[in-house]
Input
Amino acid sequence: MGKRQKHSLKQRLLQSLGLFVAILLSIKLLFALPGLTQQPVTLTFLIGASEVPTWKELIKQFEAKNSDIRINLIEGPNATNLLEDLYTSAFLLGGSPYDLVYMDIVWVPKFAAAGWLMELSQLFPKEEQAKFLRGDLEGGRYRGGLYRVPVHTDAGMLYYRKDLLEQAGFKPPDTFAELMQISQALQKQGVVRRGFLWQGRQYEGTSAMFVEILKGYGGFWINPDTLEVGLDRPEAIQAVQFLVNTIRDGVSAPGVVTYQEEETRRIFQSGEAVFLRNWPYVWYLANKEDSPVRGKVGLKPMVHAPGQSSAACQGGWGWGIAKTTKHPEQAWRAVQFFSSSDAQRQFTLMAGGLPTRRELFKDPQLVQKYSFLPTMLEVLDKAVLRPPIAQYDQASDILQRYLTAAFTSQLTPERAMKAAADETRRLLGTKG
Amino acid sequence: MKIDAIRQREQLTGWLLVIPAFLVLLLIYAYPIARSFWLSVFTQNLGTQLKPVFSGFHNYARMAFDGRFWETMMHTAEFSIASVVLELLLGLGIALVLNQSFRGRGVVRTITILPWALPTAVMGVAWAWIFNDRYGVINDLLARLGLIRSEINWLGEPMLAMLAIIAADIWKTTPFISILLLAGLQSIPADLYEAHAIDGANPWQSFRQITLPLLMPQVLIAVLFRFAQAFGIFDLIAVMTGGGPAGSTETVSIYIYATVMRYLDFGYGAALVVVTFLLLVLAVALASFFLSKLRAQASGAE
Output
């Protein structure tokens, strides 16, 4: 009896050991299985909610062509800064869940400097690069490396009321002085309330707008190679003086110092002003059926000083790849697909927004739907970057503070720009 | 002897029961503050590739000469004091009205609390439009009343922008104070007023000698709550002016947010947090000290 019991105990022990090993093996197998059966890899990224429907369509096509890749799209807020915060915190916490990074152009230097992005120039051949708009491509560089493939472009320009200029016998202006003259003439005739609307609130849009005026006077903000600061040079002071004068002379509403893009767009669209500095999206809205200025709006590159040339502040979105991704090869295939000619064409047809490949601006199908594309190409060829430096946000905040101080007559343009330049030099660690 | 032992055991149980709450408090309050102190003696920004490098009190020295920080501190103080004082006065008035019995009081009370229930960002957008120079309701009303000839650029002038923000904040948070004070008013027994009236006191005397002293605890709570909250104001300003024009409405929390989240300057951001925290503690301590003194005086006068 005792012996039998002992025997069964041994048996049971063996049995449970066998079970244990079996469980262990099957767990191991479970982990190894994906490798054997080619389980698709998942690429994750975050995108503003308003763009999601369009991206879903493109993702469907991509997944159909690439059965080994699944895309996990995460909906984020629409505001650019909130999206940036989400990406930033994900990277800061380490082990970012994102493989791809959908980036605004001004994030590139910071994200690259922080070491969050993969360098792409090995994957992205020169002849392929040449097919993109120059400004958009350059915006993806930081200290010689390339970190972003552009998919949508954006640039600032001058909208004008074709009908009003024709009636009064004016040609669209080329220079700052002409813009002022035409505005004042039409205001005197009582045709419009305001001449020129621009964005003067203390926010990133003001820096973007100022880059255009500054370049139009032949000035510069920060030279990214030498870190030289040009804000207190005569050209920069002239640029500020011009904007201050538009308010002083009543050409611009005093409210411009509180306006962002939408406020200026609404006032322009209601027919109250001749000129508007804004981004391409205005074109779609101003020509909607219920718009009072439908079909009466023209656009051209921003005005400039005599002997200088126009400038358009470069904006836009593109794809980067997170350095932490486990699937760089698949991520690059997705970037290639999303930035392809075909995907960009579809995106523009579905949701508006401008492509980044030069050929698409002459694409018959697109031009038929959006007649302004060829003119847009002219604007985009004048694109100017905001300084691609790692501390761009700080530099931009300094500029915004002193610009609005000048706009609201807290400081004269000279003093405001002197202070802005000094503070920027301190930030960059360069001496005047 | 036996009673002593029982008491001891009870005390021990008491401590044991308190420990979980104490640990939670430690974890969610003490740890972040201690961590900020720790971070603030490092330099960790884009210049160091986001790696922490010990730098002693460098960040604090930098802060001493950071004009922007002290400016934002001033704006925050202006905003907090102005809004809390005005909200307290208005809130007290509203609470006194709501404490009276009249027809439809329930409805009125509900309506009064509405502004407080709205998300700040949403009402911030609305207030920005209300103060819009061209399409704003305020300018329209003033023009109709014949008070102004040209539009006032509310959010475009440093002084006016601050006033506009304070006005929006008052609209939003006065209800909070009035509800708190209303609760206090309702806890004052009616017989006190009766007895006082029989002694020949008029309503003003009753208010000064009964209502105010007995309401002081609620006033103290309301002021402390609101002051600490106003000191951290962020969303309303971010939506209405973004800190502009010329940085005139930028508050400490907006500056800290920019430093940490946008400039990725963590060490310096932590130092800003530490100094702001200490100043806030100091302000709250001073405020509660004076208020409790006031309260002691008021009850002593009785």
Observations:
- Chain B has a mean pLDDT of 90.
